[in-house]
């Protein structure tokens, strides 16, 4: 496979490296030392810098003030963001904006996308459902009200009513709009977008493994206008695939940074007069983790390419996304576990950032489903689309 990136994609990486070069992983309090969330808000300084360098509109078309690049470019930037544990909703906001551009109507796109690209509007999405184990769209119902033409009702007065719960919504307290997957009476999945402050929407604080604020978003008769609901076939499935693939990019970037930290430490730490990196047992473990990262990288770009190109294949795109998440979840867990082992007691020192990476890795591993969930999904896809 040829994973050569275009000049525009490489330029996005260089811009991202420049922005993230001044970000320290310990910019917020340690999750190990903080009983609740590590911070009340996102890293606004970093968010504004991403907006200034046009990285928030990376996947938006020039018509909306964006760069017109594809999800591969977004994954490249996400990979860099994870190396510094960037506390910004880069994945969620960009993924939702891209889905609105691809599937939403012109009114909704004009309302949200230019401002999202400039960083003036933050978007997030509830992708975990009520428990994190069932499809997210099943946790919220959408029923129509005031359909156009009924009793003289105009199109402006028609819309949908949402009822249900989405748990563990990332960065919800800082977001301006939240994308909510839901299902209609006929079982059709839809995607609704509504302001966080709209009547019928309440947020309850939750805290992630990494110490970041999440929210349980409860919808009790929350109304969305007709143009704020996207019922185009495949919209939610595509957005969830993009979110999952973006999570794989975060896992890869974090794992690469952790392995580099481990190599630096074991190259300096001496026992019996020699650097521990020269010991065979240490070298073999590090080599195994390097292989994990290369597998994570290959499967990530395969999934990102399928999403970006809409290319066909013997299996649906969801299969490539599942394979990427299996490797990302298992791989990032093994990388941080080996790093903790090879660092010895120093790895548990809260003045050293490794424990932060470990907490973020666990959050990423389980986000949008652990490896076991995607193995089950892949098995279903193979059963439905037999090869050979």
Automatic annotation (TrEMBL):
Domain of life: Bacteria
Domain spans labelled Acyl-CoA dehydrogenase/oxidase C-terminal: 247-374
Keywords: FAD, Flavoprotein, Oxidoreductase
Annotated Acyl-CoA dehydrogenase/oxidase N-terminal domain residues: 6-120
Pfam families cross-referenced by the UniProt entry: Acyl-CoA_dh_1, Acyl-CoA_dh_N
Cofactor(s) demanded: FAD
PANTHER family, alphabetized: ACYL-COA DEHYDROGENASE, ACYL-COA DEHYDROGENASE FADE28
Homology family: Belongs to the acyl-CoA dehydrogenase family.
Protein name: Acyl-CoA/acyl-ACP dehydrogenase
Organism field: Streptomyces anulatus (Streptomyces chrysomallus)
């Amino acid at each position: 496979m040829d994973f050569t990136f275009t000049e525009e994609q490489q330029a996005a990486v260089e811009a991202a490296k420049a922005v993230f070069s001044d970000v320290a992983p310990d910019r917020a309090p340690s999750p190990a030392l903080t009983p609740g969330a590590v911070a009340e808000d996102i890293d606004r300084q970093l968010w504004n810098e991403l907006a200034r360098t046009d990285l928030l509109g990376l996947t938006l078309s020039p018509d909306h003030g964006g760069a017109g690049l594809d999800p591969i470019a977004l994954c490249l930037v996400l990979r860099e963001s994870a190396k510094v544990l960037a506390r910004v909703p880069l994945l969620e906001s960009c993924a939702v904006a891209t889905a609105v551009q691809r599937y939403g109507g012109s009114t909704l796109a004009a309302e949200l996308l230019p401002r999202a690209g400039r960083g003036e509007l933050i978007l997030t999405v509830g992708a975990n459902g009520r428990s994190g184990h069932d499809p997210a769209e099943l946790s919220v119902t959408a029923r129509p009200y005031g359909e156009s033409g009924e009793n003289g009702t105009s199109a402006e007065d028609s819309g949908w009513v949402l009822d249900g719960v989405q748990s563990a919504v990332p960065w919800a307290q800082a977001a301006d709009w939240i994308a909510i997957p839901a299902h209609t009476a006929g079982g059709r999945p839809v995607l609704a977008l509504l302001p966080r402050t709209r009547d019928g929407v309440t947020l309850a604080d939750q805290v992630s493994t990494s110490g970041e604020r999440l929210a349980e978003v409860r919808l009790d008769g929350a109304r969305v206008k007709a143009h704020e609901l996207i019922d185009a076939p495949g919209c939610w499935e595509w957005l969830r695939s993009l979110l999952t693939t973006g999570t794989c990019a975060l896992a890869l970037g974090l794992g690469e940074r952790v392995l580099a930290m481990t190599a630096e430490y074991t190259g300096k730490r001496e026992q019996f007069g020699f650097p521990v990196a020269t010991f065979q047992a240490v070298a073999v473990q590090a080599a195994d983790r390097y292989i994990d990262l290369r597998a994570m990288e290959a499967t990530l770009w395969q999934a990102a390419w399928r999403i970006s190109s809409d290319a066909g294949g013997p299996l649906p795109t969801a299969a490539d996304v599942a394979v990427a998440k299996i490797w990302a979840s298992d791989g990032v867990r093994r990388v941080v576990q080996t790093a903790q082992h090879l660092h010895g007691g120093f790895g548990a020192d809260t003045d050293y950032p490794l424990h932060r990476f470990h907490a973020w890795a666990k959050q990423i591993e389980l986000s949008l489903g652990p490896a076991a969930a995607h193995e089950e999904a892949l098995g279903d896809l193979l059963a439905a689309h037999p090869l050979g």
